[in-house]
Amino acid sequence: MSEQKIDGGGPPSTTTTTTTTADATPAWRRFLSGSVGRNLGLVLALLLLIVVGAITAPDTFTTVNNVLTILRQASIIGVISIGMTLVIIAGGIDLSVGSVMGLASVAATLAAIQDLADQTHWIFMVLIALGVGIGAGLINGVVIAYGNVVAFMATLAMLVAARGLAEILAERRTLQVGNRDFIDFMNLDIIGVDMLIWIFAIVAALGWVVLNRTTFGRRTVAIGGNREAARLAGINVKRHTMWLYAIAGLTAGIAAVMILGRTTAGTSTHGQLYELDAIAAVVVGGTLLVGGRGTITGTVFGVLIFATLTNVFVQNNLTSSVQAVAKGVIIVVAVLLQQRFARPSGRG
Predict the structure, then answer these.
(1) Of 68, 120, 233, 345, which one's alpha carbon is 20 to 30 angstroms from that of 127?
(2) In a domain, 14, yes or no
(3) How far apart are CA 99 and CA 15, in angstroms?
């Protein structure tokens, strides 16, 4: 802004006054769009569900057994959701994790594999499940990163192929786990908490460390924020993308081991629609579908919110159809809030 200044009757001189424009973004919006604000909103949503459950089913909802049931139900989807979080933060998507989980459960319970496990150690079954998951994830990663196939289509193809291969291997039968040592280990209680819950907690903690305390995590966020800028900064985007899908496959393999311990059976029907539940938990947890932003903590809260919601409905004898409608509403609200609060400052 310019103004004229009279100096001792001499000729007018022009000086420049610099005006600093204050940030017009309201403080409450800046707070809500930050990580603390997003996580606070998730905590409040979870507490609200807990209050509703305590009021509508006071005799059963607040018991220790029911709390452990909620955590147990959340654990398998939660493990898958950790891998999904990393993929979505990088701007990708993986629709195949549920089918890969089913395939890994079948592969680990084949008669030949169980015979080898009986002769050696049950850990052999676990390694087979993890290997199948990593292998499927690597195939996804190679096709997407080096084949330049859109992630949606590549993982959709893996969804169909993995489910079909699982049906062929299992001959459309349910394969029972016969190794009692494996079953006993997966059903251990450590200080009163199920092994499945401990596995979920460990995977979530490792995911948090990877995302927040490693170069790999920083590169993941950079790729999701601006893929071309990340490449120009020296990041091997293709190789990194490949390993992200391998991690998603690994979490699907871990989930397969968990469901084997829970059901004592491997079947091609394991993991159906789990990919949608995982994506929903990740989105509700605050991870942007376009990539560049997300937290493991938010994903954990997202998983717990859906598990608690399901438990509240079960406690009140509501149908699965009502549960599906409620989940759909929650997902839509979460996406709308993302669009509302993720806009850059200063824009309408």
Answers:
(1) 68
(2) no
(3) 70
